[in-house]
Design a protein that fits this description.
This protein is an all-beta fold and 536 residues long. The protein contains one helix and 54 strands. The protein is globular.
Amino acid sequence: MKKLFSIFCIFFVSIASFSQVWNDDFNGIDSIWNESVVQLNPITISDFYNYKDSILYLGGGGFYVNNGISHGIASWNTDTIITYQQGVEYGGVNAIIRYKDTLYIGGSFHSASENPNTANLAIWNGSNWRSTSIGEVNAYVYDFCIYHDTLFIAGNFEDIGEFECKKIVAYNGEEWINVGDMGMWTKALAVFNDELYAGGYWGVRKYLGGTEWETFNPRPNGYVNELMTDTINSFLFVGGQFSAINGEDSWGSAMWDGFKWNAMGTANGTTIWPQASAMYRGEYYVGNSYKVEDGDWTFGIKKWNGESWDSIGGAFSTTISALEVFRDTLYIGGLFGFWGGDSPVPDKRTKCMVKLYMPDNGCDYLKPRINTYADTFYLNNGEAIVNLYNNNPYADSWEWDFGTSTGSVSASQVVEHTYTEVGEFNVQVTVAQDGCVKTAEKTIWIELGGGIPDLESIEMQVFPNPSSHDFTVKTNLLNYKNAEIKIAGLNGHLKDIIPVTSETTIIPTKGWSAGTYICNLFIEEKLIKTEKLVFE
């Protein structure tokens, strides 16, 4: 009996040590409160900002912390809460960042502690808030992002003082920079594949440099509020108020993998608000997934496991508006007054913030793929050159098997293989990273070009090549209908799509980094020719 009891205890402790833990006990934070129930701005946490895993900043609207006046901005080092003058007046903080060791806050506030010209954007000088060097921002600020050592600021503004900037602006620490006109509000910024992306009213855009932005097509069928990068697997998650991408159900979230859009189904079923997503344990977490039970709505946390949505729990009484990982724990903020952990009915009064610890998920974070720009390739003069791309740029090693008698080859993330026979080939890549080893597979087909008229007579010439400026592509197609060029970037990700409408096509290279790119010629959605481009 004692032996059975001991086994049970060991089993129970083992299970408990691997279960998720919800908690709203924050050392040094006794309460977050308002002066009265009726407020212009209710208590809410709209953003967390993790600074070097040493300080967690809290931004939002209408709150006091302990006995101190905070009004929308505070910081916490897991022991002590710090406030900044009187915080902000008549509004809230939407975004927080430290740039060149200086604290910036952005939002919808009238001023920061009544200091002049600090509406919507304020800078902490160590003792009080100040304005930008060129004046006051005339409308809301929604997000910050540091890209190539430059601070980018997104929002709904038109001017900073007398400096005109249309929903987006940049600052390099010395001067303010015009980086284009977004037309409508911009709510999210993120760096993906060493490129800057923006999300907003118009969907998703990629920064090309200068004042130029490229809009992704197709776009989600609604607004984009949030962008989140999975750097391990090279995925860009897009959150917002939409229900489909490229004609497929994708409620609230979709994923761009650098080659194509990936729909994420209907199970999330809700809007993702700005700042309300995070990468935790290498997986994508979102807030606001709702559950209806006995006519009552509760909001919770879900995560994307790479194939489907898993419900984590939470049972929050209303909106979740901020997620951030700090010291190996997920912090959750919002407008909610109650939460219930993983129980179905809210039963705990909160400070508008809760933390969730999830156990280590082992190697689940590693999700290797094999990407190509086509599934079918055609022999041309007895050869079909196939470019293969893995999505894990920081792996320790890659071992490729091309499905032929050549066996496996230890190589890099991006490889090229020449096939000389028709057939169906199962390609595999085995990726090792930090002790985790996983294999991805993809089937490709090599066919004769009989289905494509005059395949072997189709020519594609690129000049100058190498080039330090734009490339020119010359083709000899009989019919230029439904012909296009897709440019693959340094790691295989889609760089550009250019319609082919005449004998010569210009490939613009503004914003390119030096290196080797791939020019893919498609006709009727079939990959016909590839050519390497060397950009100097």
